[in-house]
Amino acid sequence: MTVQQFPKDFLWGGATAANQLEGAYQEDGKGLSLPDVLPGGKERMTVVNQPDFDFSLNEDKYFYPNHIGIDHYHHFKEDIALFAEMGFKCYRFSIAWSRIFPNGDDQEPNEAGLKFYDDLIAECLKYNIEPVITISHYELPLNLVKKYGGWKNKQLIDFYEQFARTVLTRYHDQVKYWMTFNEINSAAHFPIMSQGLAVSNGATDKKNIFQAWHNQFVASAKAVKIGHELDANLQIGCMILYATTYSYDANPVNQTATMKANQENNFFCADVQVRGHYPAYTASLLAKYNLQPQDIDYTDAELDLIAQYPVDYIGFSYYMSAVEEVTQANHESVKGNLMGGVRNPFLKTSDWGWQIDPAGLRIALNQLYDRYQKPLFIVENGLGAKDQLDENNYVADDYRIDYLRQHIQAIGEALDDGVDVMGYTPWGCIDLVSASTGEMSKRYGFIYVDVDDAGHGTFNRYKKKSFAWYQQVIASNGANLD
């Protein structure tokens, strides 16, 4: 069987997030965001989940890499030119909420912040690169965490609506593709990033997680409503973290555990945002945490809004697969994208312990398309590795090329299966700060940025071997993966 040709309008590109690359964390009126108080290093999540973590800066004790990022704020023209040289058809990025509304609850937007995105979008369009914008990507204004308690507070719906209306109104003529929340379902494991909830302000109470999700579902529906009223042709998607999940063996107990894990981890948020209503297993899922539907503060009007304004497509990240095993406790464990689990003996792992599974991407695409029949957009996928510049300022990252080649082949196979795939934007198309660990040494990009974990370096940009390889992939529309 020959692999299906990629559609002629397939959106090849790359993906980043404002808080991980822009820097300039207090420039031109920007307010503090949640990532601005997350320290760098492998213990990042351990630190923020201490009971006494109060979301304050302690620069005597910690380094905060998001303050600097890769200084994209001052290098964006150079960076977009490099993306254009690779042939990008699209570029997925996010708008920093606290750059537009410094405190999140401001009455008027910060014009200097909007001007930055005016210029960034114009630079993309200059090269015929389609902007793909995530409205909220792990960058909640810090004031909305400290004053309002994060997304468990219904007031954030109105603040998000104002933010979404501001950027959609300003850019709908230039930007066709949007996503409402990044990896909204990641709160199942780490609500700090997407919901602004840590141990110190309610993360251990699952009622808060589900309430925050409901509030985000309402906010997402409002963004879809605003966007479609501005232009019915706008494409506004959800964005979920997806980890294809296998049972360790044929034991029905493990098979059942896999079914339940898929419902909670992979499907719940998408079921609501795509189908427009809570799934039948909602009560069962809540009961797992001794909750009932009436424990969640919701109204019929909110449910009607969710039903009327589902998303147009499904964006998702795919880095790894997972294994469910509940009958034994002596299996080797591995790390992962905000979650780990049992080691799959058939898979290799990355430098950070994430299980590499290209076939799992084909399975993910089929599972999602079978379930929803909506276009799919792979908006994150990539290999974090310890790249080293040689004496010629070059990185021969064949390991990354091999990883991406296998995953692109899997996309081709899914197309052959009949799946509707819109595009592919590998994560961290240029090196940036890791969300989970705050490290620069965990590099994903086609472009090396000379800055280390302590924020030291020239910030010069250098093309890796994968740069030319991805250039030919795009030029051949996926036909030449050699």
UniProtKB/TrEMBL annotation:
Keywords recorded for this protein, A-Z: Glycosidase, Hydrolase
Offer an example of a GO molecular function term for this protein: beta-glucosidase activity
The active site consists of E380
Does the record bear Hydrolase in its keywords?
yes
Which residues, by range, are in coiled-coil regions? Answer: none
A GO BP entry is: carbohydrate catabolic process
Q: Which GO terms describe its cellular component?
A: cytosol
Its family? Answer: Belongs to the glycosyl hydrolase 1 family.
Q: What is this protein called?
A: 6-phospho-beta-glucosidase
Q: Which organism is it from?
A: Bombilactobacillus bombi
